[in-house]
Design goal:
The chain has helices at residues 2-6, 25-33, 37-70, 73-127, 131-135, 139-181, 186-230, 232-237, 241-293, 299-340, 401-408, 431-436, 452-456, 465-474, 478-482, 506-520, 536-550, 585-591, 594-600, and strands at 362-369, 378-385, 390-395, 416-421, 424-425, 438-441, 524-528, 554-558, 570-575, 578-583. It is an alpha/beta fold. The strands form two sheets. It has a six-stranded mixed sheet with strand order 6-7-8-3-9-10, sandwiched between helices. β4 (416-421) and β5 form a beta hairpin. α4 runs antiparallel to α6 (139-181), α9 (241-293) packs antiparallel against α10 and α18 crosses α19. It comes from Granulosicoccus antarcticus IMCC3135. It is found in: Cell membrane.
Amino acid sequence: MFTFFENLVDPYTEGPVGSESTTRVWPFIGAFTRPFRTIIALNIVTSFLVAAAEVGLLYYLGRIVDLLNESTPSEFWSANGLEISIVLALVVIFRPLVQILNTALIKNAIQPNIAALGRWRSYKHVLNQSVGWFENDFAGRIANRVCQMPAACGDLIFQVMDTLSFTVAYMIGASILLASSDPRLLIPLFLWFVLYIVLLRWSLKRIRPASRASSASRSRTLGFVVDSFSNIQSVKLFSHTARETEFAQGIFEDHRQTYAAETRIFTTIDAGLVLLNGFLIASVVGWALMIWSDGSATVGVVATAGALALRINSMSSWVMGSLTSFFRNLGVVSEGMESVAQPIGLLDKPDAPDLQLSEGGIKVVALSHHYGRESGGLNNVSFEIQAGEKVGLVGRSGSGKSTLVKALLRLYDPEQGQILFDDVDIGSVTQASLRAQIGMVQQENSLLHRSIKENLLYGRPGASDEQVISAAIQAEAHDFILDQCDSYGRTGYAAHVGERGVKLSGGQRQRIALARVILKDAPILILDEATSALDSEIEAQIQTTLYGMMRGKTVVAIAHRLSTIAQMDRILVLDKGCIVEQGSHQTLINQKGLYATLWQHQSGGFIDIE
């Protein structure tokens, strides 16, 4: 039975592109709930039926009291036995079936699937954001929003559809029942309802901003904790455990204060509700007793009115709790939209084709990018790299090397200028196809917390085991991979490497990254300090592999250790965002310019800090 309801909606169906990027809450939620419209409608119907059945039971309770009051036991069963048997059958069969159907629709069909659908679409949407977008926020906070916000959407739907529909149906049924007994019984109910709405309005004005603040504080707290744990090595190396604890106390205290401000509102609501419900019970039962005293109502009416008052008393607390939870979840959704609903900043053009490289030539034309500032980055850079040419990039820190590499990878769109691969503007093709043509080894190589094999297959997902092992051997990684064992007993290529690859040394991570690029076998290579984390012996062994890997490919290599790029066909020297020199190693040495100065400052293969 459970499987039937759980499979009524496929949470992994594709949604309309960009539907998550609306800036308004309800259209945003509507994009997630669209596949559930039929189920939600059926849930509303069952909620009405459940409410009607409950009101009907209270009505029949009053009727039984009157029947008992008017007859002896023998007369009671002979006159009413069939009627009572039918009602009991409905209570035993119909009401449970409707209630079970209502619960299954909410708990099994809607809530888990809408949460999964929301997380799936939110994750896909956020994953398409630019690298720069991720650099401007905590990874932990983004993850919290992606995971918590869709679950809050599911709870919102439950609270709106189930609670609201049940309450409306119940109040209508209760009003009809009281009016049919004696219209005067509606007076205390109406007064209570007016006061309840006043309390509700007071509450809702305060709950939403308080819930939003609490949700934002919770995300900040999670972001801080993840950031601290992710950088645990720095914390330990600088002996800052006490300092981090002090920071944490301030952040935790901020969250405690915002959460306390939220709970003060809930306590005030509960106090007001207790007083209101006391008024409801006393006034409805008291009024029913008054009209019974003057002979205008039966004992059954008094019993029904009292039962209804008690049920509305308990239901009002449930409704108020649902509404406060509703606005708390609305705060979570609203806060989560700050990440999940942001439009994609770096988009492919509509109907952009895939990049098809025939040779691998690179042309950069009047490229400028300052990250929205007046200076820094690149300033009117132009150069051309022939297909198969090996070019090194050299310059002091901040000269624009990394900015240039990010532009070649189209991690951002430049403010001015063009980059062409084989005379095709990279801004006119899909980002995925562009990066598929580039293999890159970075100075800092973070790995996914998955198996070594899965990390290697990032280079070529369809590669065979033989190809994976061959790439690892070429990168001098095979032997240390075979020695790996994780906490679950997985060994070799199946061993998991920890978050960001922390279980491996820097050199081991770099060799995994090299093996991954070897496996990818892309026509363009970008090497950003590709051997910086290797010891001299391993680097010497890897150099042969690197030169073999470069054969027939276009190569752009960044290095502070100038000896690693001295054999390049050409070297570009950057300073303050401009190309100030270019030529072969010997040509640049003879020019006695910036490159020659940097070369002279080398000590053991490194540039002097000055």
